[in-house]
Design goal:
Layout (H helix, E strand, L loop, with lengths): L5 H14 L3 E5 L5 H7 L8 E6 L3 H8 L3 H7 L4 H15 L3 E7 L14 E8 L2 E8 L4 H19 L1
Parallel strand pairs: 1-2, 1-3
Antiparallel strand pairs: 3-4, 4-5
Amino acid sequence: MNDLPLDGCAALADALRSRGWRMASAESCTGGLVAATCTSLAGSSDWFERGWVTYSNLAKTAELGVDAALIETHGAVSEAVARAMAEGAVAQSGAQCALSVTGVAGPGGGSAAKPVGTVWFGWATPHGVFTERLLLPGERSTVRLAATAHALDGLLRRL
């Protein structure tokens, strides 16, 4: 866990504290690394509300309210699902903002349309909901750590 992106998370923590805001996370391929990174910082209870690891499609629908039809139509690794996960995390937590991560970390599970390393991000803030797709290189652990860092940095940039 020494590779967690703590510097970027500390900047996010400062930005959230300065606004009196709290955040939530909804994770799939990162498997809780966003929440682990946030809660690695002392005092994170001031700004980190809660997180979900919604690895299965059922968890995405049951815990975050993601419409099963979105998953059926677009797949779990999609812009629509990343957006719905972030929106669901805000709605379920009462936090002012949330981030979501859904992707294919590998080594298997990829396809021609969604190769290994495909990750969709969602950020829900009072300014709107934003999404982004990246194709991250490397092995599973590298993809997961890079996705964690990008998700945290992305939320900070959208505050």
